[in-house]
Design a protein that fits this description.
- There is one protein chain.
- By secondary structure, the protein is mainly alpha-helical.
- The protein is built from 15 helices and no strands.
- Helix 2 (about 10-25) runs parallel beside helix 5 (about 55-65).
- The relative contact order is 0.10.
Length: about 260
């Protein structure tokens, strides 16, 4: 019944009522599989584009709840959620940025999600930007997502490094919350180990040392990542200039709404 109410021919009020009901149901673990297999996920993703402000908010949180159940993650990716989430993050107008990044983190736990983030225009760039300018929780989720991308693909590691993330990771590793510090330190350690492998051929020094409790060398981090900072700035400027081309999917003005708590 709720799925039928989410379809295009339904009224705005019906869609809002249906997604609100699904949000409540999605908080219970025993309902996640049933909702995921009901055909609701593509309709919820569509609401991120065309729904009212309330429906968008509720759809986003519902999708996050559903992706706690592993089998729903490929469904959300295949429904086209990742490019939409990247666009929403680039707008920086929602009070739900944290939930957007958290949803991307859930989706990055599967190979299909990671590859989609990497090939989505602005996908890595917007995560790198959040790593610099986001809230503590947003930075934590961004670092966790980038860690999954990098540790599962050397190509993804290069994409992330080209965004000049080292200084932001160094900062997060010493000033973030415990989980953010842990993810940042692990990602720095990953880059250090990759650099050490390169020294077998190039005889270069490791990129950075990031052992627990050790004072991190900001100057060294900046030196090693300097050229990538330039590319990062250029990449982000291009992304921001192009993001207007996606504006047609976000026609309604977004208002600040309280976050639903399950």
């Amino acid at each position: 019944m709720f799925v039928e109410l989410l379809k295009a021919e339904s009224s705005r009020a019906s869609k809002e009522a249906a997604v609100a009901a699904l949000l409540t149901l999605s908080c219970l673990n025993e309902n996640k599989a049933c909702i995921g297999s009901s055909g609701a996920i593509p309709l919820l993703v569509q609401l991120l584009i065309s729904g009212s402000n309330q429906a968008r908010k509720d759809a986003l949180i519902t999708l996050y709840n559903l992706t706690i159940f592993l089998a729903n993650r490929p469904r959300v990716v295949r429904a086209g959620a990742i490019p939409i989430l990247v666009h929403l993050l680039s707008l920086r107008k929602l009070d739900l940025l944290e939930k957007c990044v958290a949803l991307l983190y859930n989706l990055s736990s599967i190979e299909e999600g990671r590859s989609t983030i990497a090939r989505t225009e602005g996908g890595v760039a917007v995560l790198a930007e959040i790593l610099e300018t986001g809230s503590i929780k947003e930075k934590e989720h961004a670092a966790a997502t980038l860690l999954l991308l990098c540790t599962n693909s050397s190509q993804h590691s290069q994409l992330v490094l080209r965004e000049g993330v080292i200084p932001a990771l160094v900062s997060l590793s010493v000033s973030g919350n415990p989980r953010g510090q842990d993810k940042a330190q692990k990602l720095l350690q990953h880059f250090r180990e990759q650099r050490q492998k390169d020294t077998v051929l190039s005889h270069s020094a490791p990129l950075i040392s990031c052992s627990q409790g050790e004072r991190l060398d900001f100057d060294e981090a900046m030196k090693k990542n300097g050229k990538k900072e330039e590319k990062k700035g250029e990449s982000r400027r291009m992304h921001k200039s192009r993001s207007g081309s996606l504006g047609f999917i976000w026609k309604s003005k977004v208002t600040t709404l309280p976050l639903y708590q399950c």
